[in-house]
Amino acid sequence: MVAGVGPNGGGGGGEYPGRFTGFVAVTCILGAMGGLIFGYDIGISGGVTSMAPFLKKFFPGVYHREINDRSHSQYCKFDDFTLTAFTSSLYVAAFFASLVASTVTKKFGRKWSMFLGGLIFLSGALLNMFASHVSMLIVGRILLGIGVGFSVQSVPLYVSEMAPHKYRGSLNIVFQLSITVGIFAANLVNYFTPRLTVVDGWRVSLGGACVPALIIMVSSFFLPNTPNSMLEQGKPKEAREMLRRIRGVSDQEVEAEFRGIDEASAAARAVEHPWRNILLRRNRPYLVMSLLIPSFQQLTGINVVMFYAPVLFQSIGFKSDAALLSAVITGTVNVLATFVSIYGVDRLVGEIKTVAYYY
């Protein structure tokens, strides 16, 4: 039996009272919509780079190898430095933007970091939509990456701070759900846009990123700030009231959690060098886990499959339409599997705690 851990939490580990209110459901779901922009980008790029008109305009070398040279493998046909720069520039930009985003999120609040991410993403989507040269595409991708960096950094934090402890796992996976919905929507768009005759289909596909950008911008504009963010900005009265509202309990019941947040906020403010602080011995287990968990997730290769799905299916002999349709099917399964996770995550955690308590 592990000391301090019981089947019902026992008040340890920050398990405070809280109900699943309509207000917290709306705020968490709207906040989690920030995942749409990341998901849409994952799903859209592979389909666009398999469209002949797009390759002909911006990457003629790849286009001519694809059309005329049947002796090379699919990898050799797509082995192009500029095309690689187009696809990878977003992720390089997102990496550096996420480092800056943490400071912006802390100073101005989670909601405004989400809004800024959506605004920058919108700018990149418009630039890609109206691109006439490959340099415009790459600059647009960089802007998309900055938007993704801000959103991926701030959205999970927002949802975690708003969600009651009991439902935090499920509500956090809503962010993952919005990513999978974004991927599915992008695959669906890519399947239909090549059939357009009035306008280039690839422009519609790339411009479609404006929709999730506008969703997160409008949502974040109306969303309240989290109690944690309000405390960081020196607004304890507003923070206590917001915490009471999102938990749906009395002032007395919310007081313990408020004190915990206040103490954690004070401890965070006392840290002079946060980047150096995470390297301290006492923080090493948290650092290792926070690095290993997402690393192992990425090493499964699932993002590569989702990103290059149409190209991968073409490389094994599928025609263009069949490859795009196969990507839609893959995206559909991805969405359905995420619903299974939402249903099971908190139940599984509860069962693990019960086993730990009794054994």
Automatic annotation (TrEMBL):
Family, according to the entry, reads as follows:
Belongs to the major facilitator superfamily. Sugar transporter (TC 2.A.1.1) family.
Question: Which species does this protein come from?
Answer: Linum tenue
Q: What is this protein called?
A: Major facilitator superfamily (MFS) profile domain-containing protein
> Domain named Major facilitator superfamily (MFS) profile: which ranges?
27-359
Instruction: Write the record's keywords in alphabetical order, separated by commas.
Output: Membrane, Sugar transport, Symport, Transmembrane, Transmembrane helix, Transport
GO cellular component terms, A-Z? membrane
Q: How does it sit in the membrane?
A: Multi-pass membrane protein
Q: Which Pfam families match?
A: Sugar_tr
Transport as UniProt keyword: yes
Q: What is its main location?
A: membrane
Recorded hits in CDD domains, A to Z, give:
MFS_STP
* NCBIfam families in UniProt: SP
Question: Mind telling me which InterPro entries this protein's record contains?
Answer: MFS_dom, MFS_STP/MST-like_plant, MFS_sugar_transport-like, MFS_trans_sf, STP/PLT_plant, Sugar/inositol_transpt, Sugar_transporter_CS
Compartment(s) of residence: Membrane
The Gene Ontology terms for molecular function here are: monosaccharide transmembrane transporter activity; symporter activity
Q: Which residues cross the membrane?
A: 20-40, 81-100, 112-131, 137-159, 171-192, 204-223, 286-311, 323-345
Domain of life (superkingdom): Eukaryota
